[in-house]
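Retry 2 of 3 after timeout on previous attempt. Resubmitting structure tokens to design endpoint.
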């Protein structure tokens, strides 16, 4: 019907792509790290398409499987809108109708994110603005504390292959983690910076962004595996077991 998502959305989204702001040369992560980040979204889309294909194999024989596939597309469309900072629109009603019985907290989190958009690009831009402050020495740092910290950055004993704790490299890793869809890991790096207290607001936003991504992941899994509480577009319970669920022994 009108307003519903169709499978062509996946192909158009993949072809359009998104480009995150480039890191400054001094802080840029390695080519391998950037390649890993760029491939993260493609891997997620490919996995979802495989799930949809498996559902579609039995959709004609079981209307419940078609309902699951539609639910998965609703979540995908919601993720795309949130990633772009666009309003959810009709997707709000669809999320409530299909998923509230199964995952009410996740539904509330996603709808709240749609009403107060927070994109990865915004997090990256704000991190760039804060970076100079974050790597500076804390304002109230005493002489001995500063001396110990500076000496610790000069003389570092660590295992081979362990990431350097240098603040500039932490900023670069935080950017790389954000671009590869790992906001929790990015926040962990920022918390270890010398002036991390200046990033309290940014850390709160990073946590909200991470919660939204976890809620979207949870609804994707729910669309596939939820055995009882999932509903279709008409509000009826989907009784058909998931074709990808592992049968109980």
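Retry 2 succeeded. Sequence:
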């Amino acid at each position: 019907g009108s307003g519903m998502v169709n499978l062509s959305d996946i192909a158009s989204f993949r072809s359009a792509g998104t480009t995150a702001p480039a890191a400054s040369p001094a802080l840029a992560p390695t080519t391998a790290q950037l390649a890993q980040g760029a491939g993260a979204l493609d891997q997620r889309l490919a996995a979802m398409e495989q799930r949809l294909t498996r559902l579609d194999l039995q959709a004609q024989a079981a209307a419940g499987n078609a309902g699951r596939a539609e639910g998965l597309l609703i979540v995908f469309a919601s993720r795309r809108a949130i990633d772009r900072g666009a309003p959810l629109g009709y997707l709000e009603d669809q999320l409530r109708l299909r998923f509230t019985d199964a995952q009410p907290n996740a539904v509330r989190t996603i709808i709240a994110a749609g009403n107060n958009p927070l994109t990865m690009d915004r997090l990256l831009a704000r991190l760039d603005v804060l970076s100079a402050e974050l790597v500076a020495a804390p304002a109230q740092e005493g002489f001995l504390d500063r001396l110990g910290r500076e000496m610790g950055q000069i003389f570092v004993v660590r295992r081979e292959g362990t990431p350097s704790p240098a603040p500039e490299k932490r900023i670069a890793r935080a950017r790389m983690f954000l671009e590869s869809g790992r906001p929790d890991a990015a926040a962990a790096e920022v918390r270890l910076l010398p002036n991390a207290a200046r990033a309290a607001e940014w850390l709160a936003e990073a946590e909200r962004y991470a919660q939204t991504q976890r809620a979207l992941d949870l609804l994707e899994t729910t669309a596939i595996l939820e055995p009882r509480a999932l509903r279709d577009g008409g509000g009826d319970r989907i009784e058909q077991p998931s074709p990808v669920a592992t049968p109980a022994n």
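Attempt log closed. The CA atoms of residues 59 and 66 lie 5 Å apart.
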